[in-house]
Amino acid sequence: MDGPSTAPLPLTRASVQQAHRAIATLVHRTPLLSSTSLSHDAGYTLLFKAENCNKSGSFKIRGATYSVACLTDHERRRGVVTQSSGNHAAALALVARDLDIPAHIVSPRTAPAAKLAAVRAYGGNLTLCDPSIESREAALADVQRRTGACYVPPSDAVNTMLGQGTVFLEVEEQAREGGWGKLGAIIAPVGGAGLLGGIAVAARGTGVRVFGAEPAGADDCVRGLAEGRRITDFKPETIADGLLTPVGEHNWPVVQQDVEKVMTVTDEEILDAQRLLWQRLKTVVEPSGAVAFALARSAKFRELRVEGPVCVVLSGGNVDLDVPPPWVKA
Amino acid sequence: MDGPSTAPLPLTRASVQQAHRAIATLVHRTPLLSSTSLSHDAGYTLLFKAENCNKSGSFKIRGATYSVACLTDHERRRGVVTQSSGNHAAALALVARDLDIPAHIVSPRTAPAAKLAAVRAYGGNLTLCDPSIESREAALADVQRRTGACYVPPSDAVNTMLGQGTVFLEVEEQAREGGWGKLGAIIAPVGGAGLLGGIAVAARGTGVRVFGAEPAGADDCVRGLAEGRRITDFKPETIADGLLTPVGEHNWPVVQQDVEKVMTVTDEEILDAQRLLWQRLKTVVEPSGAVAFALARSAKFRELRVEGPVCVVLSGGNVDLDVPPPWVKA
């Protein structure tokens, strides 16, 4: 598929810093929240990076903004295209709208209605396809052929990783400004691992421990690390609809090299964490956005004996608010 | 009833500043949020003071903390007592717990279950009574007689107003720090008017226009201002369960003198505003917490032609998350 023609930056902390300079005025510097009661319950200081409050409702705006910023003017004018069932689709549609260029989005018919509605609200041209990988790729190729639009992948690309990694630089600054001092660790959820990979690159040399949290029903990363190979043939089954994809090819070596450990949480733990975040932190996160916190509350995470504050990334907050929250029994 | 023995400060901006110094390390400096899309829809820059994220889930922690700070050691040791159906009760119970003194709370049986649960979780001694004013006052007098605890009123007291007014000082600072510049106006919801009154006192001499927003089903303040008298004999009927009380006696002259205008919003407008805050700002507010925003979005507010950013106070976020949100049809 046609990627951007400009050479991607190398994967270093400095290249994440360069990405941050490029996008800092275009995305929100989301709040770093704290909670006395949740910290007390966990047994250490918890900080929450509220990427659910970023533009388009997730951290995906960072990678999408940076990827599009790296296109040439000529490429940009042809528009952008992606395949995504959710937050990346909405983020790319919003970036394109603000630049007044077309965004073509290929999504499976089974994608959450609230996320498809956001794509339409941002003016994205939506093409619905069957939920199989073949159907998705065929639809994507067809749109590219017709429009000449440039492909902006959801997570599996160097520029995407660099954009997502800017989360870490902000957390570092905000922890210092807030008087929290040096972080002990940061936990990010794992789907394609663009966010986790970017954070791991940005954290190199800082001494901050980097952990991934994965739904037990989509544990390709945990199993892949154990087996020493990237796993792509699995059927995910989890409430965390943003974390269904396998770890991307570009992101895999970073996860292997720079992430201390990836651990799983069950759907029940995810739901408990999501409810607690709504109730105590008063912040609306989607199931995927609660996965890192679910791990932070677990006994197995406590055994790692992190020293210093633990930051969990609340990655997204796009839920269908016209139905009861998932923990409410019908 | 037995009030605090220390003489309350005068009602000036300086006395709010003094209250702020007394409580700043004891309550959260809640985030000042912004939203490009909500500002765009409103037609002016909107800022949101997220008091729903304060300790105990509402701004009430400010007045409760300051009121208790103004007690003598001797008074404090005897414990505190209040009557409240909601957020003030939880706030006072939390303040008392942190000081390791008893808190006695008189609440009507009909109070929201989630709010009563919070009082219990903070270790408050709960006395349930019938929902009539007589029953409440009898229960309160009885508890005072038995315990000698000091009465800390929910809104109708000078120290309460001074504590709540600290919201304004923070908003001023945060708007400056965030590069938003000088505020054009601030809107607060009106129940007993401790919050609105405190803000109006703090805003004196600043040139910031102060507005109140009241549920149409509990419009004693709007009608009272029109008739030139405080109205106390009315039957409130609104979804905004935190705004049912009449404007307090101490707060009334401040509202008359220092508030530019108080306007009503319907329950339907409140629900729309509440849903939008959850969806776009990803922040959980209760109906009362959405009332100021409901007014900010209205055509009648736009007619006031405010110049500069408009801050709305999201006053509380305590909702029962185990039932569907109120806008979801069963």
TrEMBL record, chains A, B:
This is Tryptophan synthase beta chain-like PALP domain-containing protein. Belongs to the serine/threonine dehydratase family. Pfam families: PALP. It comes from Rhodotorula graminis (strain WP1). Residues 25-316 form the Tryptophan synthase beta chain-like PALP domain. Signal peptide: none annotated. PROSITE patterns: DEHYDRATASE_SER_THR (PS00165). Keywords: Lyase, Magnesium, Pyridoxal phosphate. Its cofactor is Mn(2+); pyridoxal 5'-phosphate; Ca(2+); Mg(2+). SUPFAM superfamilies: Tryptophan synthase beta subunit-like PLP-dependent enzymes (SSF53686).
